[in-house]
Amino acid sequence: PLHVAEQGKVLSESPFPSPNQEEDSEEEAKLKYERLSNGVTDILKNDAASCMTVHDKFLALGTHFGKVYLLDIQGNVTQKFVISSVKINQISLDESGDHVGICSEDGKVQVFGLYTREGFHENFDCPVKVVALHPQFSRSNYKQFVTGGNKLLLYERNWLNRWKTVVLHEGEGTITNIQWRANLIAWANNVGVKIYDISTKQRITNVLRDNVSLRPDMYPCSLCWKDNTTLIVGWGTSIKICAVKERNPTEMRDLPSRYVEIVSAFETEFFISGLAPLVDQLVVLFFVKENTEQMDDEVRARPRLDIIQPLPEGYEEISSDALTVRNFEDNECRDYRLAHAEGEPLFYIISPKDVVVAKERDQDDHIDWLLVKEKYEEALMAAEISFKNIKRHDVQKIGMAFLDHLLKNGEYEVAARKCQKVLGKNMELWENEVYRFKEIGQLKAISQYLPRGDLRLRPAIYEMILHEFLKTDYEGFATLIREWPGELYNNMAIVQAVNDHLKRDPSNSTLLTTLAELYTYDQRYDKALEIYLRLRHKDVYQLIHKHNLFSSIEDKIVLLMDFDKEKAVDMLLDNEDKISIDRVVEELADRPELLHVYLHKLFKRDHHKGQKYHERQIGLYAEYDRPNLLPFLRDSTHCPLEKALEICQERNFVEETVFLLSRMGNCRRALQMIMEELGDVDKAIEFAKEQDDGELWDDLISYSIDKPPFITGLLNNIGTHVDPILLINRIKEGMEIPNLRDSLVKILHDYNLQILLREGCKKILVADSLSLLQKMHRTQMRGVRVNEDSICESCHATILPSEMSKSFSVVVFHCRHMFHKECLPSQGTIPGLQFCNICSAKRRGPGSGILEMKK
Predict the structure, then answer these.
(1) pLDDT of the residue at 145
(2) Which of 120, 217, 575, 650 sits in a 20 to 30 Å window from 595, CA-based?
(3) Which residues does the UniProt record annotate as the domain RING-type (predicted)?
(4) Spatial contact of 66 and 77, defined as CB atoms under 8 Å apart
């Protein structure tokens, strides 16, 4: 396994960081690493890697001894090509992976099909450092590639199947790197980086090298394309991100159609050995030198692979890993390469004696890290979310590890709460966990979370927990009995256990309440009711209603009333058909204060139901509830007035006595009591108004005539009922009356108001009389229909004769009664005026105005 150090720390030999090392770092690594082994290990024992190119299907590895190996992604050799006896400088593959370009230090360049071996084979007299195939080289019209040594040469096969050579650039030193993407070729030489557009045959930029003091052969330039128009350049400690853009046609003149804009440029801490894009971030391979404590000179340290977030003028470090590759102490910056797979986050770190693969950490790796950090809850959540994608982990095993961790740390309540999530519907696991909680003495913690729905444990489990609570915690025991359905456990066994405890503590209200609930579950309601009444428990009424226990409470009404009068009375009145009024009155006979509450509510509901107890109620109201006595006397039609008057006079209840006197017809005595006992003129005036008796007004005036305040009250209120002159004439000369002027003004104002009202009424009356007279006149002027069906109201024969030829005489009144003239009695006292006998007898008024028909 690969040695990996996170944040600059050396890691162990194991594939994953050790727990101690993971604890040192709070940040989770972004990448994981493994050494490319199998065939690669054998190759590098006797040879050294010089370059490598990555394709989706395979890897191509070049060595210092001039060989090229095709490898699968596990590092197994699938093909071997012996190209030269010296170092392979570069391997290039087209997008399809069918063609390869190889160049070596002795000047050999070979471009051929992996399956045909036909192609370009040439030896040059100088080293060729780089070669790059057209990305679409497999297609016949794109048979192009470039090589770089002292010159940048473009090779293109013409229609005669011959290779044509074009010099694209020369004169600026050795070309050390070439990257071809779509129609753009980027290359680096000793001066800087240039980009050539092969579609327009134009060179479009020149990005100068920043640190010219570094030897380009020791610190070569790193190039990679992020996409078809974005080039990333790393050289020394400088990184630049260049965007190729289209030039505005109006600005072209003799300029190239494209130009390059540097969108980000920044310096790094270490020397750059390779670059690769990772979405919007960069993966950078750094060559690191460190100062030793003993010597002043620098030594080569482990290379670092960093993920950084580029900013316009800087960068943010996302992660940093130091890699312990083989023989890193002997390597230079130029010995490291970074290759990456297009479309897949795989990064290959190539050094002479080692090839390391860096991958993005998957969900299994993330869970591993969380478990090492003892973040079990997050690990469980991550496993639940990604349960379809994880391969090495099991959700339930993580959950069990989480429970173990919580119990180990003494977090019993949290562990119990998590059991529902972790154990789910596995009843076997549930029972095992309950016994584990029992062993550590924490049955109480798990009791609240046990299954109690469709899936249940054996009754013995629940009973074990109830017995545990019964030994140490009565309140907790009561809570469980309330919350758990009765069918979870053997009810009789628990009842027996509770009774055993009550023998030692018979007055314990918690145990008694719980026992009542157990009796209720067992449908032994009479025993439950007995306990509830003894405890005065609030659920007693609910129990009575729910299970119709009215026959059991007939002799317990006083207990119920003592507990809660309002609820008890409401319940008794709502269920009169089950417990009669007479039965309740009989039970409450010795408790008059409770009897009054019951009868009062009964009277409020229905004034007639308890009429035979109204006489008794007079004394109860007088004793316990005087404010409601007067309303009772007013509303009751069944109480004896003499008895009521006697009780009120004994207790000197003036208002009630006044009411009773007035109701019995002794209004003068009632008025006298108001004036003498209460001294309230307003109440006296109100009483006189209610009775509307002239003699009462005289008595009131006589009593008030020598009391100026009373005279003021009379003057203010008497005007609409009695002629004020009667009062004013009887006032003695010289008597000083408070507010006399205001009272007289009010009398005059009331008189004027009466006059106005009378005049208004007179106008309305005259108008209505005239309207009705006109209506009556119109009605009486109408004709009256007489036909064969009409009869005489006196003889009851038809009004018309059978022979119309004979002469006849008929009298028709305006009231529509008809008579034969001979059937009418003689005329009245007024000559020429006759009345309808029928209407006159019924006092409907005369049917005057005769319509006489003669023929």
Answers:
(1) 94
(2) 650
(3) 792-840
(4) no
